[in-house]
Amino acid sequence: MTVTPFQISVSDDVLDDLRARLARTRFTTASDTTSWAAGTDPGYLRELVAYWANEFDWRAAEKALNAFPHYLAEVAGRQVHFVHVRGVRPEGGPEPLPLVLTHGWPSSFVEMLGVARRLADPAAYGGDPADAFDVVIPSLPGFLFSELPDGPFTRQGTARIWHSLMTETLGHRRFGAFGGDIGGGVTQWLGALFPESLVGVHLTSAVITADFGDRPPTAEEQAFLDDLRAYDEQDGGYSEIMCTRPDTVAAGLMDSPAGLAAWIIDKYRDWSDCGGDLETRWDKDTLCTIATLYWATGTIGSSFQQYYDYPLNPPVPRITVPGAVTLSNEPALRTLPKSLVERVLTDLRHWHRPERGGHFMSHEEPEQVVTDLRAFFRPLRAEA
């Protein structure tokens, strides 16, 4: 299978059109006197749009992204984009452990860049050279530079694509996997489908079993499930739209960069560990970089496909490969009982509830993620 080097290059025409659209933005008024209570705050959005149009330097952001090695590969007949940061092998030491990192929504490969070089070259960051990983960061199907699959977008199907990428395209016999959100689901399916290939799976969010037939939920588990249901009722409007009418909302977001930014940053604020203050976690350059990637590739609509196809996801079976969780400190998960995770990950070897770092944990707390990945995989390397 052919692997082709790739560089991100957004044309001047696309950037000129983007700035022109931003300059013509029409803003709504707030529906609630409490800032952000009804979604993205119009006042903050106005500020961000002005920055995006007049101050944000996409070429500098593009150069920084291209400092990482990007590639395209055809897998299962479709184009897959990935960043590949090769591990640094210590002199006389073992080969770096291959590791695939999978992002979620509304995220991208950018989420994982802060951990990539630390994982690949630990000695350069004061770590043990023997902890080096060979880091692969694919873009999910339909996200940015990766094409949608030829068929439904499911976590199970994506796991099959990733397994082919790691074993057939890149030639790894065994590898580790890490992810959260959609990426967590893909990571779990990798462990479930390919136990002979997976050294271990590490999650920041855990898919909860829907099957309690053999053992009813405990009081603690039921309280969490009730709280999760209540949270989803308050937060789930975005999901219901994308699950049932994705093309309707995508039409507006594909035409309005301000609308696109509003849709994305609402989740970056709600789901990150920012205490309600978005810019304690995300500066404007980061937010504009992510929004520009979605805008320039025109993939916000195709990123919704995994929501529309969600009913086609079968329940994740029990996973027997070694498992780890560094639990996201986002509202929906921060009280997740360990016992619920152990119903799915039957060989849970690492459990950490750090109480910092939310939905986008690798972006928010890269050192924390790196430390936990090294600790979990260190004793498993001999089995690789």
From TrEMBL:
The keyword Hydrolase applies. Keywords: Aromatic hydrocarbons catabolism, Hydrolase. Residues 3-112 form the Epoxide hydrolase N-terminal domain. This is Epoxide hydrolase. It comes from Actinoallomurus liliacearum. GO terms for molecular function: hydrolase activity. Belongs to the peptidase S33 family.
